[in-house]
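Case study B.
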Amino acid sequence: MSHDSHKQSFISHYIFSTDHKMIAKQFLLLSIIMACLGGFMAYLIRWEVAFPNVPAPFFGLVSPDKFNAIITLHGTIMIFFVGMPFLAAFPSNFFIPLMIGARDMAFPKLNLASFWLTFTGAVLLVASFFVPGGPVAGGWVGYPPLSASSEFAGVKWGAALWILSLAMAFFSSSVGGLNYLVTVISLRAPGMTYSRVPMTVWFLLGSAVTFFFSVGPLIAGAFMLLMDNMFGTGFFLPAKGGEPMLWEHLFWFFGHPEVYVLFFPALGMGLDIMATFTRKPIFGYKLILGSTVGAITLSFIVWAHHMFLSGLNPVLATPFSITTILISIPFAIIIFCMFASLRHGAIRMELPFLWMVGFLATFLVGGLTGIFLGSASADIYLHGTYFVVAHFHYTLFPSVFFGGFSGVYYWFSKMYGRELNKKLGLLHLVLTFIFFNGTFWPLFRVGIGGMIRRIADPSFYPQYQQFANWNIFCTISAIALIASQAIFLWNIVWSMTHGPKAVKNPYDSNTLEWLADSPPPHGNWGAKLPIVTGDPYEYSKPGEAKDWRSQAQNL
Amino acid sequence: MDTSHSEAVVYPPGEGPTGHYSGPSDLTTGRLGVWALIASEIVLFAGLLGSFILMRMIHPEWAEKARELNLYAGTLNSLVLLISNFFMMKASSAVADHREDDVKKFLSLTILLGFFFLLVKAYEYSGEFKHGNFPSSGGFWSFYFLMTGIHATHILGGLVALGILLNRAFHGTLESTKGRVALTGLYWSFVEVVWIFLFPLLYLLA
Amino acid sequence: MLDALPKAISSFAPTIDDMLYLIYYVTGFFFILMEGYLFYLIIRYRQKKGVAAKYEKGDTWVQIQWIIAFSVIILCIDLFLDFRGAKTWAAVKEEVPATDLTIKVQAKQFDWTFFYPGKDGKLGTEDDISSYRELHVPVNKKVHIIMTSLDVIHDFFLPEVRLKQDVMPQREINGWFDTNEAGTFHLVCDEICGVGHTRMTGVLQVDDDKTFEDWLEAKDKEQHGGVQ
Ligand code: HEA
Ligand code: HEA
Ligand code: CUA
Ligand SMILES: [Cu+2]
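Model:
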């Protein structure tokens, strides 16, 4: 392998590196670029909803066809090209090998391929803006027949590119996930037994496994949809003997587990951060893992809660409603354990911790509002309204951004060897928290009022005029929210080059990654691998001089 | 992004950046990898087969269409795959026993039968086309061409892997990667199993 | 929060609203409890000089008992919500009662057409009476609707009735509703269906029996010249 050589060319170092840390940074950079794009689209959506038919600054008029395309791509980009790379691929690549004491992933070349697959997917998606007929416009869920034939939406190449781009993202995350799984099974450092594996790793694995077992059928579905579009097959077209609901089933069998795929990494990082800053062991390590297994299992049998009103046999609604609401139990246990971990702690109020609290506080709203939707009878009214939009932004944004940022603030010094500016970080947190709630909290009320999602022109609906001011308020908050992210971008760019040099273990934390240099060299550890001698969360053990004890002491 | 320059690190034997400490050889990761690949294929095919079975239950009239398929070609192909798997097993055990000539012989036979399978498939397709049955001719045909097409792609992938192994066997370089023969065999038998599901579902379910 | 709900004009609308209120109170309680406790914990247990964190791992029996108790409470609440919700759902979606009138709802990109049986009392015959984008129903009557689409998926949403149903292409889905107040209400398409989705609205006109009959008569004359 080439990485032992002194002189690595720019290409092999930055572009086709097989070093897990470089690949992680590539995923991070890609997700930041895509977040800017997805954020810009969020601005266009909000602008059109608040000021219908007024040309948006920096863009122009968001006509209905453009609006439909923009929400579709906003959803697709945010979930598959921001959420997945930023929350799953980036931390998995960077921290799994470091936290289990490996030198790299089990299959470094597969890892490289996984990045370039996602990258190609992103490029294809962006390319779909420029093909004749424009990009897809059927919502991120792509329900056929609308998405299956250009006859209905006038989109042909855009649809094909969108499906291909999703297929790339699916393959990328699948091979990525396999890689993480094999890595954890076979490359743990000596002494790193399964009960000593940190939560971040467990939850990243849980996320990968959940993804893996739900995506297969949708890959099959994607083939079918592509063939319907390109070769005129009739998988999903009733006129040709096909069945549109088949797609809905395949999509949501994946789609529901997918939302937990985006939630678990945030939870895992949150737990590690919590232990470090409360100076306490995690309360109920095994119980949390058990609950998570329960939640994953349940997540495979709830998908039809997105389809209560789809023409599904109504008798099936109640069983699916029951399984859906039962998911509150494992999550309640996890949250209970988190609270118990805070109790009797000696909490250090540092940035990563505060971001993690922001994650908990906002996610709770999203989780609880899921119960409204999970009750089939209440969903009769709420389905397809802005209540749903508010619900899923209150779950996704906390996971991807509050959770993701807590991780970045926690580990930045490990990644780049320099520290982030804390004052700017605090400002970023406060503004994000305020404007996030400002953007989405009022939307619950708007949704209860009956305003439906995915409409380009609310001014056409006299009954929604009462919400016009609320919508303007949300839009202003959203613009401020997006603008606040500039603080973060500035902070990382500046700190990467000018920040104060970081020490190895600034937070007195136990887990292995803090034993490596900041940034860790190629191969992570020097000549010797760490030999793990203890649990990851041995903080404040009675009778010990220090309130922490590293998992390995030989480095 | 990263300004640090990687230093040359000297690793103890067997502990490169991808050093393997837990398994006896590089088989562990390789085997895990193939099993993982198979697991992902299983979920993919489960989606396909599940969708097909569901649709088949909604449309009993598809039985008519199934009767138009070339049952002889399908049966022949089932046999061909079965025998090819048998040779693959022979090849694996030949590798284990260092019988180099047998390795070459059995790998060649496996590959030959794989090609024969594809040939029969192509013949079947051309027959379908002649009768005016294309992927766009309605639900059953959409499924038939998609499922057999994906399966044939897997055969093709397996043939590529087998070809590489055979090439190595002829150049005498197989020894260092001989673990891969058994792994490819694992994959090959998976492709066979998929066909065992496809064949009755498509051809026989009337 | 829930006062933004539009008027409720069907017999089942209040039961759906009850469900919304019930969940609102349950989740509202947990929201206040959990957010409050979170805030309290963080303030109360912030690092203080000389106070070390307590070393506890949540593996003692007492601690596990707490968690079991908590889970059982949540389980009971869950099952209660499920049970209540199932009853409401069944009344709206599963049990179609005897109805007074059958109307066919036909969606296509991007409008609604409603068909009423003509003089022969049957749908799908020559003398059907059609109405474009206006759904007229008599007040206090139970209406059976048969929904279908000619092209893509649409969604039939009557906010004031609290009725929603996706309309599938080439399939007929049955539903029912009643009304207890005359007036003009809203109909929207709640599933993205193409460029015109945002304009795919309609009107639900609830009239007393007489006005309804007159309207139907007039439509009949207009479409079939009044000839029998
Ligand atoms: C990270 C993402 C994420 C997460 C974690 C969740 C979590 C949940 N979601 Fe959500 N959801 C989405 C993302 C997410 N969702 C998205 C993207 C959509 C829309 C897709 C689209 O249509 O475009 C959606 C849509 C959606 C629907 C379909 C709505 C519709 O279209 O009509 C439903 C219905 O059941 C639902 C339910 C739930 C439930 C029950 C949970 C549960 O997991 C929540 C469990 C957590 C708690 C309940 C809180 C903790 C527990 C307690 C504090 C104990 C007390 C609680 C009780 C006593 C109940 N979600
Ligand atoms: C992870 C998922 C995610 C995220 C983060 C967001 C973020 C936002 N979303 Fe989005 N949204 C979806 C997923 C997401 N959305 C989905 C799936 C849909 C459904 C689509 C459909 O109906 O088909 C949707 C739909 C949707 C709608 C409904 C459209 C409609 O139905 O008509 C609206 C309207 O208000 C909206 C607004 C916003 C706003 C204002 C933000 C703001 O929070 C945005 C703030 C901006 C940023 C956060 C980006 C900039 C940040 C950086 C540059 C920082 C650096 C980044 C990294 C380190 C990675 N979104
Ligand atoms: Cu019809 Cu939206
Ligand atoms: Cu869901």
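Chain B has one domain: 29-204. The remaining cases will be described in the next quarterly update.
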